[in-house]
Amino acid sequence: MANVELTNVRKTYPNGAEAVCGVDMQIEDGELIVFVGPSGCGKSTLLRMVAGLEKITSGDIKIDEQLINDVTPADRDVAMVFQNYALYPHMTVRGNMSYGLKNRGIDKASINKKVEEAAAMLRISDFLDRQPNQLSGGQRQRVAMGRAIVREPKVFLFDEPLSNLDAKLRVQMRIEIKRLQRKMKVTSVYVTHDQTEAMTLADRLAVINDGRVEQMGAPMELYNNPATLFVASFIGSPQINLLPVRFDGQHLISGDIKFIWDAKLPTDTDLMLGIRPDDLFQKDDGPLSLRVDLVEQHGADNLTYGGLLGADETDGHETEFCFKSGQDLLPDIDSQLNLGFDPTRALVFEKSSGDRLV
Amino acid sequence: MKRVQFEHSTIPYLFVAPQIIIIVVFFLWPAAQAIYQSFLLEDAFGLSTQFVWFRNYKDTILSTSWLQAASFTMLFSALVTFLSLAIALLLAVKANEVIRGARTYKTTLMWAYAIAPPVAGLMGNLMFNPLIGDLYKFFNAIGWDFDHKLDAFDAGFVVVLISVWKQVSVNFIFFLSGLQGIPKSVNEAATLDCKSPFRRFWTITFPLLAPTTFFLMVINITYAFFETFGIIDTTTRGAPGGSTNTLVFKVFQDGFRGADLGGSSAQSVVLMLIVLALTVVQFRFIERKVHY
Amino acid sequence: MNWRLLSTHAILLIGMVFMTLPVWVAFCTSTHAPETILRDGLQFWPGSNFAETYRQVLFVDGGVMKSVLGFDMLKNSLILGVGFAIGKVVISMLAAYAIVYFRFKLAVPLFWIIFMTLLLPLEVRIIPSYEVVSSLGLLDTHTGLIVPLIASATGTFFFRQFFRSVPDELLEAARLDGATPWRFFKDILVPLSKTMIAAILIIMFVVGWNQYLWPLIMTTKEENYTLVIGIKQIYQVLAEGGELPQYQKAFALTILATLPPVLVVLIFQSWFVKGLVESEK
Predict the structure, then answer these.
(1) Which residues does chain C have within 8 Å of residue A89's beta carbon, measured at their own beta carbons?
(2) Which of A106, A335, C11, C209 sits CB 3.0–4.6 Å from A101 for a disulfide?
């Protein structure tokens, strides 16, 4: 049981590239924190710095109030589950799980006991004497988790542990990890690029972009109240709709589209209006009209995609919107669909800085 | 390099120490000695030495015997490389095609790798023995006035034949593994696009084997330069009249048999430079190889 | 069977004969009496003299050389082959481990020193090498015979290549598991490299067994001769002529010198091929 504290943590590579530029973070005891962000954003580097596999250029990392900047990975009392599992291919499952304990000089009997317990919890007791190459992907994944669990570490670190599994198994393991973490109440840091995984697993999640934490908070807080354009577009599936607009004092204007806006906004800069697909609804005199290009039927809901008629272009392309509705709304292709939205649920960002204004 | 490495102040040095010590004592020191000696001249009785700058180089390298050895080495290397590559490629392509007996063919074609060049040389020597050698008798019987003891061409023929025989198996192993490395789907796509197997080979398979071929060329040239020493020393020993002297054999002859240390060292240094040049070429090819 | 397949088999058969016939003839000839050989030339079928010839060559004093038995030469060859292979594997694995898995100050210069040895074969520095070994008093010793041959770093490069292909995460996992450098080497890296080690051992055994020039100048006493050196000496005796040239013994010795490396290559064929092809990448 431990809390983790990062203070102004930086990583600069010898060639000058900044992987992590000044991260402050407080992770509470027993919490499951997810680092999410696009590939190359520095989230794995940050995790590996907590593990001690990557040196930090400056800043402090504390586990349990104890400064661990120069403590070796083995002495930090953390365990890690790797993306490719990193099982020792020449050892049996039992050998893999007990290796870390052996190196710590724990006696054979208690090693065996711990391994058996962890194996039972993960339902891999039957495979203890097999070698990793005789196991399926899901089983290897469990062994990797087992290897971490037997150590009873202060902190669990997960580096995209599910990305090598197929979609179905991924969902299953996701639930299992969450359940296990609840049960064991071990402080955990989980890295993923998959926003669904992040949303569903996290107690709190940190959206990371370009080596910086864009925003940190509970999943629904980030969804409802994103601080930046980046967070708004990264969190939520399907992605948030964005319309380039300007404010004339009373109206928001985008090409031929114009509607009244009563909040105060700057008039001298380009803005982005963000509306989630679920916040749109069909309204015959609504301000937005969609040319229907494609309808995806997902079962309970339908997703309608198309170009927004009359709107300004986004980055030189037609602005496209996605509209989520119940299964009974099935518009014809190339028909026109008029949409309205609740202004109180819409988000406005400054385009150049990405900062949220409303 | 690894993303993560151990940081330790003594262990890595302990681990590389044995290798480095051996290299310093048995490699760097002798190599430096060779360079140093190449500038020295020893009198006939080994009583005094004199520093003579590049005289040894001038004397040996401009001598007719060195030039003769150099040109024989070039011709010899070219022939050995070309012939052993061609034969091995033909056999590898064929062995890759057959299913029945494939294992037997492969095994019998690659096993000669294990035979030492001097052993191959001795076997060849006995085959060409005027008293009992069937090959000697055979060539004379078909009207070739064969005598490798006296005729430079015949002597060259003997060393080339034995050297090629010894080298085919290595090339065969590499070509076969290169052929097996070509994805099956590429061959299948080629079969759909091109009817003639002959054309298919030269337009698809051979270009895909190019990295292997370049690599083997360097290996074979190195072989012809150095490892054939054992073959020469057990067959012609440079005879007749130095016509089958390779550069390496001459270094050995002059240094050990002739006791001309300075001249022999100078030749060594020149050889080192040739090998260096070969290596540069090899690295060029390896760089290019990456693109495949 | 169409004509194309037939021609393929024909070419392969010719190749087979080309590669095996000389050794077959050498073997058959070695099993005949010297008189037969002198009268009828080389032999294509085994004769009846097998046991006698090989007994003479291997175990009879003066049977093949003045003071050394064929059996002793076989022993010397084995020592050279095995010693060279083991020495090379151990030393190059340690060095490659340090280079790949450690960050240390002299890593780059040391790497280049090791790399340089690939450029200059023993043959071009043979005379100064001889002088160094002789000044260290190592002539006619196993150390003097084997150690200088290990100086070339082919094995180091092979293991370096292999270690680099081992996933980084294994080291990371091991470090989190509290493995020290030595433990990681012993518990993880060496077991992982088992097949590679076997392959290199086989190749290096063959290379060591087949050494010629270096043992030739290194060994001055007959009792230290390896088979490869020995047959050359007996051939010289034959060439000088005598009453009844003992060709069968020369051939028998040739076969003895060929047999062990050939057996090793045949028995461990798949490892050997893998090692050879991978190591040159």
Answers:
(1) 192
(2) A106
Q: How far apart are CA B166 and CA B170, in angstroms?
A: 8
Whether C8 is in a domain gets the answer no
Counting the structural domains of chain B, the total is: 1
Q: Are C204 and C156 in contact (CB under 8 A)?
A: no
Residues 6+ away with beta carbon under 8 Å from B133:
B126, B127, C41, C42
HSE of B119, CA atoms in CB hemisphere, 13 A: 28
Taking the C-alpha atoms of residue B18 and residue C96, their distance in angstroms, rounded to an integer, is: 12
Instruction: List the pLDDT tens digit at each of the 292 positions of chain B.
Output: 566 677 777 888 889 899 999 998 888 888 888 888 788 776 656 666 777 677 777 777 778 888 888 899 999 999 999 999 999 999 999 998 888 888 888 888 888 889 999 889 888 888 888 777 778 888 888 877 777 777 888 889 999 999 999 999 999 999 999 898 888 878 778 778 777 778 888 888 888 888 888 888 888 888 898 888 889 988 888 778 777 888 888 888 887 776 677 777 888 888 888 878 877 776 676 555 544 4
Does residue B239 contact residue B155 with C-beta atoms inside 8 Å? Answer: yes
Residues whose CB is less than 8 angstroms from the CB of residue C104 and which lie 6 or more positions away in sequence, other chains included: B7, B8, B9, B12, B13, C98
CATH number at residue B239: 1.10.3720.10
pLDDT digits (tens, 9 = 90+) for A321-350: 999 998 888 889 999 999 999 888 899 999
Q: Which of A310, A316, A250, A315 is nearest to A286 (CA)?
A: A310
Half-sphere exposure of C136 (CA within 13 A, CB side): 19
Choosing among 3.40.50.150, 3.30.450.20, 3.40.50.300, 3.90.1170.40, the CATH entry for A4-230 is 3.40.50.300
pLDDT digits (tens, 9 = 90+) for A31-66: 999 999 998 899 999 999 999 888 899 999 999 999
> CB contact, 8 Å: B91 with chain C?
yes
How many domains is chain C partitioned into structurally? 1
- Residue with token string 């003594």: B10
Domain that holds residue C220: 69-279
Tell me, yes or no, whether B24 lies in a domain.
no
| C74, part of any domain | yes
> Does residue A154 contact residue A126 with C-beta atoms inside 8 Å?
no
CB A251 within 8 A of CB A270: no
Residue A284: Cβ-neighbour burial (10 angstroms; 0-12, 13-18, 19+): exposed
Distance CA B107, CA C17 (A): 13
Is C101 part of any domain? yes
State the virtual CA torsion across B103, B108, B111, B117 in degrees, nearest 10: -160
The residues of A whose Cβ lies within 8 A of any Cβ of C are 48, 51-53, 72-75, 78-80, 82-91, 99-100, 103-104, 147, 151
Residue C274's domain is classified under what CATH number?
1.10.3720.10
Is the Cβ of B201 closer than 8 Å to some Cβ of chain C? no
Least confident window among A255-269, B20-34, C45-59, C267-281: C267-281
Which of C187, C208, C189 has its CA nearest to residue C197? C189
Tell me the ipTM for this assembly.
0.86
* Structural domain contains residue C4: no
Residue ranges of domains in chain A: 4-230, 238-350
Please name the residue of chain C whose CA is at the shortest distance from the CA of residue A95: C187
C128 and B226 within 8 Å at the Cβ level: the answer is: no
The verdict on residue B194 lying in a domain is: yes
As a whole number of angstroms, the longest Cα–Cα distance in chain B is: 77
Most B CBs within 10 Å: which of C74, C124, C160, C235, as the mutation test of the B interface?
C124
Peptide linkage before C109 cis (omega within 30 of 0) = no
What is the reported pLDDT for B291? 42
- Which domain range does residue B116 map to? 61-289
DSSP letter assigned to residue A356 = B
